[in-house]
Amino acid sequence: LSASSLARQALAEEGIMLAGHRSRLVTPQLVREAELVVVMERHHFDDIITCYPTARDKVFLLGIFTPQEDGRGIADPVGGTLMHYRQCRDTIKAALPGLMKFLDVLA
User: Any idea where the domains of the chain sit in the sequence?
Assistant: First the structure.
């Protein structure tokens, strides 16, 4: 699926264009070949661990990298308003410095 118009609008406000973005299904090959799997929502984390238990050590919630980490994950704004998409965008943006530090440690 392509990004929704609200997702595109919220990100365009930050100068990010999603014109060519497409979501894709998680497959055994994708999980096997990934060095790291970062998900937004807790149920995504739980589903991947259930389906691919050997991937446990490389699956992380993006929300753990935010300064106010609470373990719940980042809610998908699908079905919400532009405000929900902006909140999601801002939470993801807040997580990026922590994720980058984590990636530096792994390198």
Answer: 5-106
